[in-house]
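Hi U.,

Before I forget, here's the chain from the pilot set. I'm dumping it here mostly so it's searchable later in email.
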Amino acid sequence: MQYDLQNKVALVTGGSRGLGAAISNALACSGAKVAINFFKRQDEAKAVQSKIIESGGTAEIFQGDVTNEKEVVRICKEVVNMFGPIDILVVNATLVHIHKPIEELVWQDMLDHLEFFVKSPLLLVQQVLPAMKMKRRGRIINIGSEVFERGIPGFSSYVSAKGAQLGLTRSWANELGPFQITVNLVAPGWIPTEMHRGDPEEMKTAYAKNVPLGRMGDAQDIGEIVCFLASDAAKFITGQRITVNGGNTMA
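Structure:
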C-alpha cells in the first residue's frame, strides 16, 4: 500500500542496506524526497539511490557518523539545503551487535550501544525539532527491536539500549504532542538482511518455527509500517511501540 508523502522530506539514518534501504525505498515510492544517510558504505548507498531514481523517485546520499554531534549538524544542514526542512526522521542506524555473557561485558560495550540508540536519536531530534515545531507537524520514527520484550540472553548491552530507546520514544511523544509531532517506535523481529548473512540456517529455522505466522519477516514489512506512521493516516498515533514480528511477542 502507498501513502501520500508527496512534498515531504525524509531522513533515514543507516539507509545504505538492510532495513534502512527498504525504508528508504518505501518512503520514496510514497512520494517523499529521501535523504539516505550512510557512514562507510557509499557504493551501497548509491545503489539504493539509483534504484529510487530509476523508479521515478527522489533521493540523495549523505555521508556522516550519526553519533557525532558536529557531523549530525552538518548532515541535517546538507539535507535542508538540498530538499528543505526535514518532515520525517527515521532513526535506523545501528552497530554490529555484541554477544557476550555477563562475565565478559565491559562498560564500553554498554556505551557503544547507547551511542546509537540514545545519543544518536537525541542529536538528530534536536536538529529537526525547530522546523517541526514551527510547522506544527513532524514524524519521528525510531527503529527498535523485539529483543527488549524477549530479553535475549547474552545480548544485554543491546537489549538495555533498545529499552532506553523505547523510553525516549514515550517521553518525547508526551513532550512533543502539543506541537502535533508524533514519536513512535517500530520493533522488528529477526529479519534476515545483509547483517545476518552469516547466521546459521538452523538458527533461522528454529526461530521461524516459534513465530505464530511460521516464517521470518521481510525488510519491506518494516518499510510499509514506517510509511504508515509517516503519513496522515497515523496522525493520531504517538508514543507507541509497533511490533512487526509475525506475532512472536504478543504483549
